Amino acid sequence: MKQLIRDLSCADDYDPNSLPVDKARALIRAFLEPVAGAEQLALRAALGRVLAAPVISPVDVPAHDNSAMDGYAVRFSDLNADGETALKIAGAAYAGIPFNGDVREKEAVRIMTGAVIPPGADTIVMQEHAKAEGDCVTFGSGHRRGQNLRRAGEDLRNGQTVLGPGALIRPAELGLIASLGIAELTVYRRLRVAFFSTGDELRSIGSQLEEGQIYDSNRYTIWGMLNRLGVETIDMGVVRDDSALLEKAFSDAAAMADVVITSGGVSVGEADFVKEILERLGEVVFWKIAMKPGRPLAYGKIGNAHFFGLPGNPVSVMVTFYQFVRDALLVLMGRHPVLPLPLLKARCTNDLKKAPGRTEFQRGVLTQDTNGEWTVLATGEQGSGILRSMSEANCFIVLSEAQGRVAAGEMVEVQVLEGLV
Ligand code: AMP
Ligand code: MG
């Protein structure tokens, strides 16, 4: 890691006092490897987990040629190319109950969707194109050999890799894997993330506040964001701005977790010990990111644990978590590929103040007009301490580094927060 830090600090455009968001993201990514360790889980227990080994199909899916329609299974060679065809109904095939026998010349078998194609038949005529009377059925012309048939193995072939390592197990994957008859999966073990807040002014809910004290809210947002990602959380509470206490908290956290996340104390005020302690305990890169909110960010390693020192302001915590920590955790959890959060274009309905030189993440409310156009309105006050703005918002309005102020009516890019983690 030291070498990597040295390399990057020698790069021409590297400025630790004003590092672009994308660059910081890419640099963090360079240090990350999926966590080692996997476990076997029953299929349902694997929902939300990440595959550590491929899922290989032990069967053809579907296992047999079967009908895609309710209709009649016939021999294509029996059908008149021009004019009607009348065939004898020899029996019926249902999903799960095959027709017992062959379809012989001039015969048709009534067939339901999903039923196995009886031997001899090669074509399905859908029931809407058939007229049945007694044991006789009549079709018009214009059919294709092999129509309305689902072929054995057309979905998956025996031996085919169905899902690779890195796949997230979502409801679709549960169903897909169940369709193969597989009952157990190998998934990465859960990532362990320890977190604590730093600050003499912080009190936990349930205690009385004295003058100048505030309730610790960051531990709650961080806990919530971590839980949505499905990691194991270790809440270490509030740690005072005391060098010895902080040092102990950092080394305890690093000993029991894969990742340590803290908030506060990363600026370089008098009581901001984080930088100095980390430099003593581990290998740390400190950046001032060219972004608003969320300027100071520490990233590094203490032993094997990755460390993220987030700023103290509650909005900055959420913004930096979504912009840097979330991606990093996904990589560590084994997810592959980890794609950047998608950006949507929306028309901005108010003027936005913005100075070029840093990326801004303003909080916005995205709505859809009656004409189907997406529009976004910035929440009022954009101060980094105003958590209400995050609660009101359903998106970040992402204003790029080079961009200046935005006039009402212009298009802007937004990151949708709904369902993000
Ligand atoms: P700091 O980065 O420690 O200087 O903190 C910046 C601002 O964020 C200060 O106003 C702190 O009181 C506030 N702050 C820091 N940590 C928390 C927290 N856990 N919950 C709420 N506010 C916090
Ligand atoms: Mg502080």
Strand content: 25-35%
Question: What Rg is obtained from the alpha carbons, in whole angstroms?
Answer: 30 Å
Tell me the quaternary state.
single chain
Helix content percent band: 10-25%
Q: What can be said about the biggest beta sheet? A: 6 strands, mixed
Determine the mean pLDDT: 94
* CATH top level class name of the largest domain: Alpha Beta
Please count the helical segments. 8
Let me know the number of strands.
26
Count up the domains.
4
Low-confidence stretches: none
- Terminal Cα span: 29 Å
Q: What's the arrangement of strands in the largest beta sheet?
A: 7-4-6-5-9-8
Second-tier CATH architecture of the largest domain: 3-Layer(aba) Sandwich
CATH topology of the largest domain: Molybdenum Cofactor Biosythetic Enzyme, Chain A
Shape: elongated
Which ligands, by name, code or SMILES, are bound? adenosine monophosphate, magnesium ion
The CATH homologous superfamily of the largest domain is named: MoaB/Mog-like domain
The SS-based structural class is alpha/beta
